[in-house]
């Protein structure tokens, strides 16, 4: 009898532990489930000037605020990032708003590794097969890094940096100053018009129709910085002298620190219905 009671009491915390672990995993799995966004047709093409203030944009909904790439296991980002989208027969339009008290950017050459600056990134898989997909990055200086991935890096693929999003138009607006540490900024905003003709697979442009669903995600890279001699300098690890790891904030959480897992991206559904709040 005594042994039975001892055995029972030892099983209870084990079962409780397993139940807690199961519930935690379940909540985390729900937390990292891909998000969805319905993209409505634009009544008129927005002006690509970096300022999403046209009437057309006022009819589109913002996404939820970006979260840490790993999801709720990490704290929520201290700065807001969000996106809205529209489309017409020629373009996918993207507007992004990135809160930032200290706006800086150094890279000026096309197809340099833009995420060495703070940046905004777009990942698009038009046919949703988690294979051939496109990546576009932009910093606060409107410098572009665009590439095509035949498969994810985990499958042994290499980025094709010779791919360019031909005909794409982008603009950045600074709500504050650029590379001026002695004042406080508010945000920087991005506008993109990505032509469907640029997003072609096997030579076939990926032009959506009503109900078409793509896989898509957005990422923001944010570095911790110090101010030295009037310039922004990345904070370093005193033990190694190397920059601290960047923050990765995303629309649809990946669950891992890796954007190149297209199966984790969100869903973008196109609707021919006109955008209206």
Automatic annotation (TrEMBL):
Protein name: Carbohydrate binding protein with CBM9 domain
Highest taxon, organism lineage: Bacteria
Alphabetized GO MF terms: carbohydrate binding; hydrolase activity, hydrolyzing O-glycosyl compounds
Biological process according to GO: carbohydrate catabolic process
Entry coiled-coil feature ranges: none
InterPro entries from the UniProt entry: Carb-bd_dom_fam9 (IPR010502)
Domain Carbohydrate-binding: 48-203
Pfam families: CBM9_1 (PF06452)
């Amino acid at each position: 009898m005594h042994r039975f009671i001892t055995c029972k009491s030892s099983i209870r915390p084990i079962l409780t532990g397993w139940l807690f672990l199961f519930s935690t995993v379940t909540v985390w799995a729900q937390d990292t489930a891909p998000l969805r966004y319905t993209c409505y047709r634009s009544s008129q093409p927005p002006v690509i000037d970096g300022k999403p203030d046209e009437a057309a944009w006022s009819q589109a909904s913002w996404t939820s605020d970006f979260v840490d790439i790993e999801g709720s296991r990490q704290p929520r980002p201290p700065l807001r990032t969000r996106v809205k989208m529209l489309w017409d027969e020629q373009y996918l339009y993207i507007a992004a708003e990135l809160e930032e008290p200290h706006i800086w950017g150094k890279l000026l050459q096309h197809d340099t590794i833009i995420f060495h600056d703070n940046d905004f990134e777009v990942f698009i898989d038009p046919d949703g097969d988690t294979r051939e997909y496109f990546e576009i990055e932009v910093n606060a200086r409107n410098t572009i890094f665009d590439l095509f991935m035949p498969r994810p890096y985990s499958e042994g693929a290499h980025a094709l940096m010779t791919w360019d999003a031909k005909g794409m138009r982008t603009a950045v607006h600074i709500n504050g100053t650029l590379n001026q540490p002695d004042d406080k900024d508010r945000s920087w905003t991005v506008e993109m018009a990505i032509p469907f003709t640029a997003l072609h697979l096997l030579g076939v442009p990926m032009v959506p129709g009503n109900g078409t669903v793509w896989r898509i995600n957005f990422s923001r890279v944010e570095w911790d910085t110090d101010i030295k001699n009037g310039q922004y300098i990345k904070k370093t690890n005193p033990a190694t002298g190397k920059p601290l790891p960047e923050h990765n904030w995303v629309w649809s959480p990946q669950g891992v620190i890796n954007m190149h897992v297209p199966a984790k991206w969100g869903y973008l559904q196109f609707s021919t219905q006109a955008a209206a709040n």
